[in-house]
Amino acid sequence: IPRPTNASSSLDTILPLREILKSGQPAVLRRLDVSSAPESLLAHMNEIFNGVIEEGSTYPQEFALSGEQFHDYFLGYDAFLLFKDDGIPESADWRDKICNAGFVSSPLCRNQGVGRIMAKAFLRLAPALGYKSSVFNLVYESNAPSCRLWRSLGFKEVERIPGAGR
Predict the structure, then answer these.
(1) What CATH number is given for 17-152 in this structure?
(2) b or e along 121-141 (b: 16 or more beta carbons within 10 Å of the residue's beta carbon)?
């Protein structure tokens, strides 16, 4: 979704955002500059996302995405990435005020608090980018950790779609 026209261009007061994972590992959230990101990183992210699609409990896609499809779907606008804090990654219409976001965690990083860190960062980043509200339209009931996370942050369910997900 394109950034609202009244968006602040600077996130310097928010990013980089440093947090500690449950494991004690320092982590830092940064904006991903897709134009200068190594192809190997983007390919790794695509591979992780395709694994999430294969699991079938968080995104609606039925088939793996090519690199170009992944870029168009996930990296077309603002993208943020949580890194180990050594700086090296592990491998004018009302609608323009509503942010739709999605998060993907590598299976190797789950149960470390990564989702909570990204969600809390999102709550600061979205308003700084000019958004007035948020919609998460791909939180499947089968993804219990995601449901618990968003409920704990005060988000409310507004509708359920029977049979969504696998």
Answers:
(1) 3.40.630.30
(2) bbeebbbbbbbeeeebebbbe
Of 1-10, 38-47, 86-95, 120-129, give the lowest mean pLDDT range: 86-95
**Best CA proximity match to 70, nearest among 99, 109, 33, 43:** 43
> Tokens in use for 82?
């949580």
State whether residue 145 is helix, strand or coil.
Answer: helix
pTM (two decimals): 0.61
Find out whether 30 and 41 touch, Cβ atoms under 8 Å: no
Tokens matching residue 99 = 């942010």
What separation in angstroms does the CA of 18 have from each of 21, 28, 64? 10, 4, 32
Q: Exposure pattern of 79-116 as b/e (b: 16+ CB <10 Å)?
A: ebbbbebeeebeeeeeebeebebebbbbeebeebbbbb
142 residue type, one letter = S
Domain extent listing, the chain: 17-152
